[in-house]
Each structure stands twice: as C-alpha cells, then as structure tokens.
Design brief:
InterPro entries: CSN3, PCI_dom, PSMD3_C, TPR_PSMD3_N, WH_DNA-bd_sf. Belongs to the proteasome subunit S3 family. The chain has 25 helices and three strands. By secondary structure, the chain is an all-alpha fold. Among the domains are: 154 residues, no CATH class; 67 residues, no CATH class; 93 residues; 66 residues, Arc Repressor Mutant, subunit A, CATH 1.10.10.10. β2 and β3 form a beta hairpin. α2 packs antiparallel against α3. The two termini are 56 Å apart. 27% of the residues are buried.
Length: 575
C-alpha cells in the first residue's frame, strides 16, 4: 500500500531553487535510507533535488510593465578576429614541427603541410609579416633569416622580436648577474615552412617573378642544410619553384623557357637527395624533371632519366601516381602502348578520390582512353558515366563512338571540331594516329557482319580513294591479326572465317590472371605503406630481457630456498 503521507512533488514555493532560502547539506544516512526503502515498497520514494543557483543582477532599467530584462538569457557571441585566428593556426603548426624534430617523426611535418590548404585562402602579407616578427628574435643568426622572409613579402620595414599583444619590442632578457641571456634560435623547419607559405601566397597572387627569385634563395638554403626532418618541406619547396618557372616568359615549349634553365638545379638536388637518402625530395624532383622534359617535348632525355634513375619504392602515393602518369605518356609517344596502358591504369587507380584531385583523374583518364583505342580496344561505357568525368570526357566519348563504328568521315569531323581541346589536353598527336585504327575497326565490323564482301563495298563504306587502297588495308589487317579472313584478289572480295568460341581460348584465363596480379600488387603496396612506431622493436627487446632477468632471479631464489610455495604461486598469478 502506498504511504498516506502526501508528497510535496516540488509544489512548495522555492526561492532561488532552495526551500526556505537555505542551503541544504546532502548527507546520506545508511540507516535512514534503509528504513525509507522498507516503508516505500512500491518504489514511491521521496526525491529531493537541490539546485544551487546564483542570483542574477541586472543593471537594465525596468520596462513599462515593471519587468526587468533577463540578462541570463542573452548569449554573448564572441567574435574572433580572422587575422588573429589565421596567425594562431600558423603558429600551431610550429608545435608540430618541433615535435617532428624532437621525435624524428615525419608524420607531424605532413600534418603541418596538409594544413596549408586551409590557410592559403586567408594568407596576406600582413598576416605572414605578423607571424615572422613574433617568431624570430631581433638578434642572432635567426634574425637574418627573418629579414630575408620579410623582404620576400615587401615588409622589410617591420622589426623583429615583437610580442603578440602589441607592437612593442621585447627587451633583451638578462640573468641575475646582469649578463644577457642567450636568445633561443628558431629551428630551420619553421623558417622553411614559412618560406613555403610565402611561395603559396606569391603563387596565388600570380607574382611569378618574385616567387621564382625567392624560391631560388630558398632552394640554396635547403641545399646547405642536411636534416632529414626537412625532407617533406624541401620537396614542397622545389615543387613551387618549378611551378613559378613554368609561368615565366617565354612559356614552354620554347627552348629559352626558364624551365630549361631550372633543370641543372633540379638535377643537382636529385643527386644530393640520392646521396642523403632523401626519399621525398628524390621522388618529387624526378617527377618535376619528367614534367619539364614533356613540356618541351624532350622525350629521349626523359627516357634516359627513367632508365638511369630508380624511383623510390616507399615514396608518397601522390608522387607515385604522378610518376606513373608521366611514364605512361612517354611510353605512348614511343609507340609502346602496352606499357603505357599499364602505367596509366595504375595512375588512375592510385589517384586520390578527393575532390581536389579531380583534374588529375580527368587528365590521366583521357590519355588512358586514347591508348586503349590505339591498342584496338573499345573503352567501357561506364567510364563516361562517372559524375566527375562525364562533362570532361564528352569529346572523347564522341571519338570512341566514331572509332567503334569505324566511320572515317565522322572521325575527321570530330577531330576538326575538338582540335583545340585535344591540343590543350596533350592528346592531339596521339589521336591523329587513330586513323588507321578507325579503318581497321571498320574492316573488323564488316568481317563480323558479312561472310563475304567485295572490295568495292569496303571502299565505299570506308570512304577510301580506290579499291587498291582497300585491298592493301585488308591485307595488312589480316597480317596483323585484326581480322580472320581470306582475300580473293581475282574475284575482288574478302571472305571471313567462322568465329570460334572465345571461352575455348586462353584469353579469359589471362584476363583473370591479370586481375589477380593487380590485387596482389595492391596488397603488397598497402603492407609497405603501413607505418609503425619508431624503435618499437627495441622496447620489445628490452621488455623480453627484463622478463628473462626476472626468471633468472626467481630460479636462483628457488634454488637457494628463499622463495616458498605461497610466494611462487602469487608471483605466477601476478604474471
């Protein structure tokens, strides 16, 4: 039965959340609690909730009705200055760089580099200058580096060694004896990172000449430093250096372009990176050299570079994708379509899936489609239905349709309509080679459709000049294995052979084997890309050695009789 005593249920007047305007101390009495539990068997226990609040004093005058505005309901929104926020974001990366140096872990450096994409839209000379003057001291070896950075952004009138609160210069610290304290120098990773931010700003503001000049100064400083914690930063610095030179007049493919003058610097950086086992710089410089050679159409020099250098296996995934893309373009120009197809396919698979890498995926896919057509294959229709590639691949879709049908007239019209787009993509010269493939495709379609067809009909359908040309093309297609047919010159017709069962051949097995090989290669590369804590094996060896020492001590105590059965059992239970 429930208790007859009425419950208050919190209906009594409450002032400031406390009855009788007094604070109540919550002290639990175990005996009283047990009695309450016995009396309230149905679970209707009295629950008293005490909430302590502070009275809110309002300075606002009462309104016409005599009510006072509730200040506690107003939420003051704290507005953060974007300049201060950007400066703070940049300085937060300094902590990551210091941890990278202290722990010798490149992952912290990569985290700092990834933050550049979020900071670059807010970069201004004022923000960069504010970070420099608050980071570098007014005296010491680091002061010269800070002045050079300020000169690059046109803020050489600023003085170093200021505080973040104001523009007052910091007095030189002194010890108790009156001697000056040694000023803490800035680590090279921080000034190189600031140099990369300056490169990003100059690139976005299209100040290419100033950017190239500053990049030369930055590369010279990197060459003098031999620190493995600078590998990722130096690779990014060389990337922007090459990007600035590509935008200076005269533009490639002119032999007088600054890209050509930059090659000795890149080759020197590559030699130094190989000697220092700098994987990041080595991979980046190889890719930049291949790009430079392709811009000026120096294919033979690019081939020599590939044959005389070894691309690092543990390079970053984005550098591997770029290297495979450029290597595929070189092999396609050299008529080695099989190797080009393999490299371009790997490049498209390794391309990042993020939105920032859509341009690379589009460019690599365009070259891959042209190479597939040159190999005599028809690309899959699903490739053109991808949302990120559909609009960019529209000219190539029409090109594939013309090649698939074997209509030479439509093929020439498509080339004339989209010549500018093909030249801009760098595929125009490769597409011009497709004319013979269009003719071969047309002959193959006719060989599948007709068991016997005259050379005159072939000449009319393919828009050829004469029957002799049709006879020559058909004979070459038979010799190359494009079609399986026989040519009767006396009667002037082509007779097709019966098509056998493709599943009775080795082609399905070879295709299946190729897919398995790609999957196994992807698994191996994933295992190689895994990161493990440094010197973890040493810690495991140390723990194993300590365990062996404890076992020896325990064995000695057992032999000497100092360890009884209880201690022995307890020790093993603890282990």
């Amino acid at each position: 039965m429930p208790s007859k005593t009425p419950h208050s249920n919190g209906n009594e007047p409450v002032e400031n959340g406390i009855r009788n305007n007094q604070d109540i101390d919550m002290k639990e009495d175990l005996k009283g609690k047990g009695k309450k539990a016995a009396n309230n068997k149905d679970g209707d226990e009295e629950m008293t909730v005490v909430v302590k609040t502070r009275p809110v004093k309002s300075s606002a005058p009462p309104d016409a009705d005599g009510d006072v505005a509730m200040d506690e309901e107003k939420v003051d929104e704290v507005k953060v200055d974007p300049v201060v926020q950007t400066v703070t974001d940049i300085k937060n990366n300094f902590v990551l760089l210091e941890r990278a140096v202290a722990q010798f872990d490149a992952r912290f450096t990569l985290r700092a580099l990834r933050s550049i994409s979020l900071i670059r839209k807010r970069l201004t000379p004022e923000i960069i200058g504010k970070v420099i003057v608050e980071t570098f001291p007014a005296t010491g070896a680091s002061a010269n580096v800070g002045k050079a950075l300020l000169l690059a952004i046109g803020r050489q009138d600023l003085s170093l060694g200021r505080t973040s609160a104001g523009d007052m210069e910091i007095d030189e610290p002194k010890t108790k004896n009156g001697a000056k304290k040694e000023v803490k120098e800035v680590i090279p990773e921080i000034d190189i990172f600031l140099g990369i931010l300056i490169q990003v700003y100059l690139s976005d503001s299209k100040q290419y000449e100033r950017g190239a000049e500053f990049s030369k100064h930055l590369s010279d400083r990197i060459q003098k430093l031999n620190r493995r914690t600078l590998d990722s930063l130096s690779a990014k610095a060389y990337f922007y250096y090459s990007l600035f030179c590509e935008q200076l007049a005269p533009l490639p493919p002119s032999s007088q372009s600054p890209v050509v003058a930059l090659r000795p610097t890149l080759l020197s950086a590559l030699r130094t990176a190989v000697l220092r086992k700098d994987v990041d710089t080595q991979a980046s410089v190889i890719v930049l050299l291949l790009r430079s050679y392709l811009l000026t159409s120096h294919i033979s020099q690019a081939d020599l570079l590939v044959s005389h250098t070894q691309f690092p296996e543990n390079a970053a995934n984005n550098q591997v994708a770029r290297y495979l893309y450029y290597l595929g373009r070189i092999r396609a120009i050299q008529l080695r379509y099989g190797e080009a197809h393999a490299h371009l396919t790997a490049a498209t698979r390794k391309a990042p899936s993020s939105a920032c890498a859509v341009g690379f995926s589009q460019t690599a896919t365009k070259h891959l489609l042209v190479v597939e057509l040159l190999m005599g294959d028809i690309p899959d229709r699903a490739t053109f239905r991808q949302p990120a590639l559909e609009l960019a691949l529209q000219p190539y879709f029409r090109l594939v349709q013309a090649v698939r049908v074997g209509n030479l007239e439509d093929f020439e019209i498509i080339i004339a309509d989209h010549a500018d787009a093909f030249r801009r993509d760098g595929t125009y010269t490769l597409i011009l080679r497709l004319r013979q493939n269009v003719i071969k495709t047309g002959i193959r379609m006719m060989s599948l459709s007709y068991s016997r067809i005259s050379l005159r009909d072939i000449c009319i359908r393919l828009h050829l000049g004469s029957e002799e040309s049709a006879e020559y093309i058909v004979a070459k297609a038979i010799r190359d294995g494009v079609i399986e047919a026989t040519l009767d010159r006396e009667r002037g017709f082509m007779k097709s052979k019966e098509v056998g069962d493709v599943y009775a051949t080795r082609e399905p097995g070879e295709a299946f084997h190729e897919r398995i090989r790609v999957c196994l290669g992807l698994h191996d590369e994933s295992v190689k890309a895994m990161r493990f804590p440094m010197n973890q094996h040493r810690l495991e060896l140390k723990n194993a050695q300590e365990a062996r020492e404890r076992e020896r001590e325990m064995a000695n105590e057992i032999q000497e009789g100092d360890l009884d059965d209880d201690d022995l059992g307890g020790e093993f239970e603890g282990m």
